[in-house]
């Protein structure tokens, strides 16, 4: 077991690390065990050893040099600051811990139509600010954002040649061999397609997720526990594409569905709609014991193209608040107490306990 009391944690006395160019990092001497420190103000050589930790100026450079051991996370502590970079996590057992959730920000501004280094559009699958491709990833106490300016683009006349049509702009994407990913006290911000959860199992707890169109979507088995889900405009919360041979998809439990402000009209947001509900897909989402504000539609669910909610697995149970008022159509998707017992965190995550250290 590693024993490191490094200048990179969340608690303790303020310490100053000096190297090369002088004072380059300030942090709390703490009980957190970490392998690397990322500081946007660091001007030294990336990877330089400072005490027991290596110093970096970017998140990607720290991940690139991560050398974790099987069964042990490689912990990267990220100082307050805005890290404008496209981050790919392609190594297992990486943990990112921010100094301040609202002030430690990983962000990029690519949308589906943005051209990559090869002058080709990123597309929805490639535009993510942070992409997790490997197992046992963990993020705590930070913000992951996509800063594509949806509002400015939407304000342009529809015949403006500079108006972008493909405005999907992913903040976080799970893909490849991503599995058993944990996000704790993390803020995910964007507009259309904020969170693309499209591989393995994932657990989000005490998180804030903002968007307006299909902003939680994909094929993962994902649990959202005690989260705040914020609609920024009219639209749709989830768009699951669960494989037909998978028993579970998204479970939103003990969470709050709120609107960003009074501009979000009553009844203008659907709980969700099925995505790609064909060719081996049977979309699945359950809202369990969630409070809902007035922006949630009394109809609850709607179709995407020809994909109908009633032909998929879209349910709710124990909804409260003014947004829980249901019309006759929505009542069809309400589980009985006996049916609801099946949708536990343990079942959806197939026995994996994300609360264990």
**Overall tally of domains:** 1
Number of strands: 27
Uncertain residue segments: 1-7, 9-31
* CATH architecture group name: 3 Solenoid
Biggest sheet descriptor? 13 strands, parallel
Query: How big is the Rg?
Result: 21 Å
Structure characterization notes:
This protein has 357 residues and is mainly beta. It has a single domain (79-348), classed as Single-stranded right-handed beta-helix, Pectin lyase-like (Pectate Lyase C-like). 8% of the residues lie in helices and 37% in strands. It contains 6 helices and 27 strands. It has helices at residues 59-64, 123-126, 150-154, 328-331, 337-340, 345-348; strands spanning 9-19, 22-28, 36-38, 48-50, 53-56, 74-78, 81-84, 87-89, 94-98, 104-108, 130-132, 138-140, 143-146, 172-174, 181-184, 187-189, 195-197, 201-205, 208-218, 221-225, 228-240, 250-253, 256-259, 269-272, 284-288, 291-292, 313-317. A hairpin with a 2-residue loop joins strand 4 (48-50) and strand 5. The protein is globular. It starts with 8 loop residues before the first strand and ends in a 9-residue tail after the last helix. Residues 1-7 and 9-31 have low confidence and may be disordered.
For the structure shown, list the relevant keywords.
27 strands; twelve-stranded mixed beta sheet; disordered N terminus; 357 residues; globular
Which helices and strands, and how do they pair?
Elements: E1 9-19, E2 22-28, E3 36-38, E4 48-50, E5 53-56, H1 59-64, E6 74-78, E7 81-84, E8 87-89, E9 94-98, E10 104-108, H2 123-126, E11 130-132, E12 138-140, E13 143-146, H3 150-154, E14 172-174, E15 181-184, E16 187-189, E17 195-197, E18 201-205, E19 208-218, E20 221-225, E21 228-240, E22 250-253, E23 256-259, E24 269-272, E25 284-288, E26 291-292, E27 313-317, H4 328-331, H5 337-340, H6 345-348
Parallel strand pairs: 3-5, 3-6, 6-9, 7-10, 8-11, 9-12, 10-13, 11-14, 12-15, 13-16, 14-17, 15-18, 16-19, 17-19, 18-20, 19-21, 20-22, 21-23, 21-24, 22-25, 23-26, 25-27
Antiparallel strand pairs: 1-2, 4-5
């Amino acid at each position: 077991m590693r024993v490191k009391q490094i200048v990179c944690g969340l608690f303790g006395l303020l310490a100053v690390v000096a190297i090369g160019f002088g004072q380059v990092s300030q942090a709390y001497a703490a009980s957190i065990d970490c392998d690397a420190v990322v500081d946007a103000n660091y001007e030294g050589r990336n990877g330089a050893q400072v005490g027991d930790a290596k110093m970096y100026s970017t998140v990607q450079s720290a991940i690139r040099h991560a050398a974790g051991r099987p069964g042990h996370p490689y912990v990267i502590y990220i100082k307050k600051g805005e890290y404008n970079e496209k981050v790919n996590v392609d190594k297992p057992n990486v943990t990112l811990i921010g100094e301040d959730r609202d002030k430690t920000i990983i962000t990029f501004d690519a949308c589906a139509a943005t051209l990559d280094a090869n002058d080709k559009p990123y597309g929805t699958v490639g535009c993510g600010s942070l992409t997790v491709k490997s197992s046992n990833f963990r993020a705590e106490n930070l913000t992951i954002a996509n800063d594509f300016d949806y509002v400015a683009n939407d304000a342009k006349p529809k015949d403006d040649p500079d108006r972008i049509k493909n405005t999907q702009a992913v903040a976080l994407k799970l893909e490849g061999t991503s599995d058993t990913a944990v996000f704790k006290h993390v803020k995910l911000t964007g507009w259309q397609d904020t969170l693309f959860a499209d591989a393995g199992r994932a657990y989000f707890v005490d998180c804030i997720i903002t968007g307006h169109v299909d902003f939680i979507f994909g094929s993962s088995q994902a649990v959202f526990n005690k989260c705040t889900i914020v609609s920024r405009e009219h639209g749709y919360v989830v768009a699951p594409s669960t494989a037909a041979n998978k028993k579970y998809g998204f479970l939103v439990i003990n969470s709050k569905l709120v609107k960003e402000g009074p501009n979000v009209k009553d009844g203008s947001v659907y709980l969700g709609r099925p995505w790609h509900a064909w060719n081996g897909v049977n979309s699945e989402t359950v809202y369990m014991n969630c409070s809902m504000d007035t922006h949630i539609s009394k109809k609850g669910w709607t179709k995407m193209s020809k994909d109908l909610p009633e032909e998929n697995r879209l349910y709710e149970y124990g909804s409260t608040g003014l947004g829980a008022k249901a019309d006759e159509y929505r009542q069809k998707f309400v589980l009985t107490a006996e049916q609801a017992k099946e949708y536990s965190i343990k079942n959806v995550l197939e026995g994996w306990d994300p609360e264990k250290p």
